[in-house]
Design goal:
Strand content of chain B: 15-25%
Largest sheet of chain B: 10 strands, mixed
Shape of chain B: elongated
Oligomer: heterodimer
Distance between the termini of chain A: 12 Å
Strand order of the largest sheet of chain A: 1-2
Radius of gyration of chain A: 19 Å
Radius of gyration of chain B: 25 Å
Order of helices and strands of chain A: HHHHHHHHHHEEHHHHH
Shape of chain A: globular
Number of strands of chain B: 12
Chain lengths: 353, 353
């Protein structure tokens, strides 16, 4: 897997992991904001961060990290539905896209030897297998008929015959870019070399290419609204690139035009962003595309500085706040977890050995 | 051999009784069938709504104020005039949530509620004695709204006035039973900030809309629906029906009022790519059906089954007054500000996209 070599940010990561331990809710989960309700997505991202070798992902971890991970995993196991999926939080009885993130966690848990030894339970492989089954069986949008496909092509210039993944449980919903990207990651991380070339993942990548904005990058999934171009957004572009980073395979014949364009688009977004979360997510995605488009090593270093300190990449570019004294970013366990993954030189969360 | 006289058979039901029974059965069966085929509304609710609508016709008229305003001048004074001109609710000691329309960054377009209008509204409600004023939005097209707040100029207003902003897409959630049953959902998950508001003020941009004809204070309520549960761009609600969803949100949510930013509105290819149209008005009222009907007429559209159907439907449901004669116009007369907006093109509806 291609990735820029990045600096040593262990101090930032240590502070951030302590922040995650402190901001864990009583029920074992994490929220999007400190003290907020626990959500499956935020809990999954926090766990992925705490799996870091500086935290709970090594032999004999500090008890605070190990206990925090145990509590978080217990939350996810308890919230797993009988159909194999997860709702967005414990009281949500309908399985939906948050299950993609939870599946990602169980795939890493079952792959990294230290994590297996310390935290896995006998039922975890079954949880993961049923989760995979839910994603493939129920997470995708239904296929459209020819008549609707023609109308959609006319209105939105997209090929509705290519199926993506949905946000919600409604069987009539359409697929969108972010859930499709998350599903690709959740499935592929189990065994990158094998899964990346499966029919489901190949079609999902075709979906992302088809939904790419002509100027580069992605938005929620509508590159056109009638005859007008709808611009890309930082979040859609970041998740789209992460999906390609993990799943690019020989069948892609190298990096595609859509990916090249998206990298430059995302680099511009990060440079011009006022949002710590956007900088964290964007930098996480950009590190996997060394020397692509305008994503140079110097530029990426500047993004890392911005992520850590909030410093603008140039005088005329916006600043952010950066890592706070508390160790977190944007008062958000979710944004903080993203930042940990972005700062990690160990790719355990994406390419577990 | 003598024939034994046969005893006349005793009837269980007389012919008349049988006919009556059949009649009652037919009526009961018809009601049951009508109830089932007319779901999600149902015949029983339909009868109830008819009574409500008829009752509304005998009730007091709805008051709607129209005032002239300009972004370059003082907006607070005309807004205060409008608010005081109608039967506006007292906000003393209350928690007021302002819900502007913040949707996309498309420079040069009149797409978002103008920051100057938000600023005037914050000042007005503080002046009127509100305990707390919060600005909240759940953008339809982006997960991280931070950059959009900066690009739209709204962040600067929030900072200057020290107003809290809540991202409704990632807020804590509360399960709320639907009151209307119009969209077939027994309950919905709503952001805690909205569910706990004493007054929700819908502050849309006056715009044309390709599917709904116009997007005003009722359609703006789509933005209170949390993205983490219903996805982006809240298309689950399109699947359950645009009119049904809009009216359900209005029926179920807390007491509401509307301040419509029609100073520079949008015509033609709305709600994203239309052209700016200087209508120079603010429209204010507490009956959102009446406010939206008034705005539609200012734009040159008469709500009906074919145009701005959700306004017509809301009136049909007895949610408010849309008929001209049932609206008491305050401040400026409607005719003095009436325009002739270019309507949005109306494509074939493939709701899930």
């Amino acid at each position: 897997m291609n990735s820029y070599a990045i600096g040593n940010y262990d101090d930032n990561i240590r502070l951030a992991l302590d922040y995650l331990v402190k901001t864990q809710n009583e029920d074992g989960g994490w929220g999007y904001k400190v003290g907020g309700q626990s959500f499956t997505e935020a809990t999954a991202m926090a766990l992925l961060a705490l799996f870091h070798p500086i935290g709970g992902g090594k032999s004999n971890p500090a008890p605070v990290y190990a206990e925090s991970i145990q509590k978080g995993l217990l939350r996810l196991r308890s919230d797993n539905h009988s159909d194999g999926g997860w709702g967005i939080f414990k009281d949500d009885s309908f399985s939906s896209w948050h299950g993609f993130l939870a599946t990602w966690v169980f795939n890493i848990l079952l792959k990294v030897p230290e994590l297996v030894t310390l935290y896995s339970r006998p039922e975890d492989p079954d949880i993961r297998n049923r989760a995979r089954g839910w994603i493939i069986g129920k997470g995708r949008e239904p296929r459209v008929n020819d008549k609707d496909a023609i109308i959609v092509k006319k209105l939105f210039s997209i090929d509705a015959k290519i199926v993506g993944f949905k946000w919600g449980p409604n069987p009539e919903e359409a697929g969108f870019v972010i859930p499709t990207a998350m599903a690709i990651i959740a499935l592929t991380v189990e065994d990158r070399l094998v899964v990346a070339d499966t029919d489901v993942v190949r079609e999902s990548k075709a979906y992302l290419r088809n939904r790419a904005c002509p100027v580069g990058g992605w938005n929620i999934g509508n590159p056109f609204a009638y005859d007008k171009q709808l611009p890309p957004t930082p979040d859609g572009t970041s998740y789209g690139l992460l999906a390609f980073a993990i799943s690019l395979s020989s069948s892609d014949f190298g990096q595609t035009t859509e990916v090249l364009q998206a990298v430059s688009t995302l680099a511009d977004f990060v440079e011009n962003s006022n949002s710590d979360q956007t900088v964290a997510l964007g930098t996480l995605a950009l590190r996997f595309f060394p020397d692509v488009g305008n994503n140079t090593q110097d530029k990426l270093n500047a993004f890392y500085n911005k992520l850590r300190s909030g410093r603008a990449t140039k005088d005329d570019k916006p600043k952010t706040i950066g890592q706070e004294k508390s160790g977190g970013w944007a008062n958000s366990p979710f944004a903080t977890a993203l930042a940990v993954l972005a700062l990690s030189d160990n790719l355990y969360f994406f390419d577990p050995k | 051999m003598a024939l034994r006289p046969t005893k006349p058979r005793r009837r269980i039901l007389s012919r008349r009784q049988f006919t009556r029974l059949m009649l009652v059965g037919a009526i009961g069966g018809s009601v049951a069938v009508a109830e089932i085929v007319s779901r999600p509304l149902g015949i029983i609710k339909w009868i109830g709504l008819n009574f409500r609508r008829i009752g509304k016709g005998f009730g007091v008229k709805s008051q709607v104020a129209i005032v002239n305003a300009s972004y370059d001048g003082d907006i607070l004074s005309p807004l205060r005039t409008a608010w005081d001109a109608v039967d506006s609710p007292s906000v003393v000691g209350k928690r007021v949530v302002l819900k502007p329309n913040i949707i996309y960054n498309l420079p040069g377009s009149a797409i978002n509620t103008h920051p100057a209008v938000i600023e005037a509204a914050v000042r007005l409600f503080r002046e009127k004695g509100a305990k707390e004023v919060i600005v909240a939005e759940g953008s339809a097209y982006q997960r991280d709204i931070t950059d959009l707040l900066y690009q739209s100029g709204i962040k600067q207003v929030l900072t200057t006035l020290n107003v809290p902003f809540v991202d409704l897409n990632h807020d804590d959630l509360v399960k709320v039973a639907t009151k209307g049953g119009f969209n077939g959902l027994e309950f919905m998950w709503f952001p805690k900030t909205i569910a706990e508001a004493d007054l929700l003020v819908s502050m849309p941009k006056m715009k044309t809309h390709h599917w709904a004809s116009v997007t005003l204070s009722m359609k703006n309520l789509y933005g209170i629906v949390p993205g983490i549960k219903y996805g982006w761009p809240k298309n689950t609600l399109h699947v359950t029906g645009i009119e049904q969803s809009i009216t359900e949100l209005y029926e179920t949510m807390p007491p509401q009022a509307a301040i419509v930013d029609g100073i520079v509105a949008m015509e033609d290819d709305g709600p994203l790519f239309g052209k700016p149209r200087a209508a120079q008005v603010l429209v204010v009222g507490r009956d959102l059906v009446a406010v939206d009907a008034t705005c539609a007429r200012i734009m040159g559209f008469e709500p009906s089954k074919d145009t701005a159907k959700h306004i017509w439907y809301a009136e049909w449901l007895g949610q408010g007054n849309a008929a001209k004669e049932r609206i008491e116009q305050k401040a400026l007369p409607l005719e003095s500000v009436k325009q002739d907006f270019v309507p949005a093109p109306k494509p074939e509806d493939v709701a899930r996209y």
